[in-house]
Amino acid sequence: MDASVAPLFRHVEEPTAAAVARPSREDAEAAVRTLIAWAGDDPGREGLIDTPKRVVRAYEELFGGYREDAAAFLERTFSETGGYDDMVLVRDISFHSHCEHHMVPFFGRAHVAYVPIDRVVGLSKIARIVDAFARRLQTQEHLTAQIVSTLDEVLKPRGVAVLIEAEHMCMTMRGVQKAGASTMTTQFTGVFRDDPAEQARFMTLLRQGRG
Ligand SMILES: Nc1nc2c(ncn2[C@@H]2O[C@H](COP(=O)(O)OP(=O)(O)OP(=O)(O)O)[C@@H](O)[C@H]2O)c(=O)[nH]1
Ligand SMILES: [Zn+2]
C-alpha cells in the first residue's frame, strides 16, 4: 500500500476509533504554506521556501506515535527473574507531546511502575510506550490513561502506577501565560489502587534521593 494514503492508527488500544485517510505529503506542505501566509509572512521568500518540507518531515517524527503499536513493545517478556515479584519503577522518563487543543508542545517526565507476575518486560520498552503515546495529539490525562491501560492489558501485572508531571506551552507562551505552572496526573490499577500502602510506597520512591 502507498504509505502516503495508509490509514493512521488513531489510538491502538481503541480500535473502534475512526481511522482517517492520510493526506498526501504535497497537501501537507501546502497546508504549511497556508499557515505561514496566515501568520503574516511570505512563504515564497528564501528563508521560508523549504520550510514546508522541513515541517512535514518534523511532523513525521513528532507525530510518529500514530504509526506505532504500543502494545507490540510488550510482546517480549523475560521469566528468569529469580522470583522477583516487587515493584519495578522507571522514574524520570522525559517526553515531548503536543496538546490536542492548540497543537503546541507540552513536555515533562513520566514515572511508570508495575508489579510483575512471573514475567518482566525490558525497561526500555516502558519508555518506548511513553513515546508511542506522547508522539500524538494528546491531553495529559489521556496520555496517562493510555500508558496505564496498555501495561495493564498486555502484561496483566498485579498493578500499574503512572505519574506524569508536565509543563504546557499553551499555558506559558499564550493564553493565561503562567510560566512554570506544572500539571500532575496519576492513575493507578490493581495493588496501587486498592492498597494505600503500595500507593504511598510508589510516591515515596519517586521522592527518594531528591532534595
Ligand atoms: N485537561 C486538560 N486540558 C488541557 C490540556 N492541554 C491543554 N488544556 C486546556 O485546554 C483548554 C482549552 O480551552 P478553550 O477555552 O477551548 O480554549 P482557549 O480559548 O484557547 O483557552 P485558553 O488556553 O484559556 O486561552 C485550555 O484550558 C487549556 O489549558 C491537557 O492536557 N489536559
Ligand atoms: Zn493547549
From TrEMBL:
Key words, A-Z: GTP-binding, Hydrolase, Metal-binding, Nucleotide-binding, One-carbon metabolism, Zinc
Catalytic activity: GTP + H2O = 7,8-dihydroneopterin 3'-triphosphate + formate + H(+)
Record keyword Thylakoid present: no
One Pfam family it belongs to: GTP_cyclohydroI
InterPro entries: GTP-CH-I_C/QueF, GTP-CH-I_N, GTP_CycHdrlase_I, GTP_CycHdrlase_I_CS, GTP_CycHdrlase_I_dom
A cellular component term, taken from the record's GO annotations: cytoplasm
Alphabetical list of SUPFAM superfamilies matching this protein: Tetrahydrobiopterin biosynthesis enzymes-like
Superkingdom of origin organism: Bacteria
GO BP: any one term: tetrahydrofolate biosynthetic process
Entry EC no(s): 3.5.4.16
Keyword hit for Transferase: no
Family per record: Belongs to the GTP cyclohydrolase I family.
Family annotation (NCBIfam families): folE, PRK09347.1-2, PRK09347.1-3
Oligomer and partners: Toroid-shaped homodecamer, composed of two pentamers of five dimers.
PANTHER family for this protein: GTP CYCLOHYDROLASE 1, GTP CYCLOHYDROLASE I
Designated name of the protein: GTP cyclohydrolase 1
Protein's organism: Blastochloris viridis
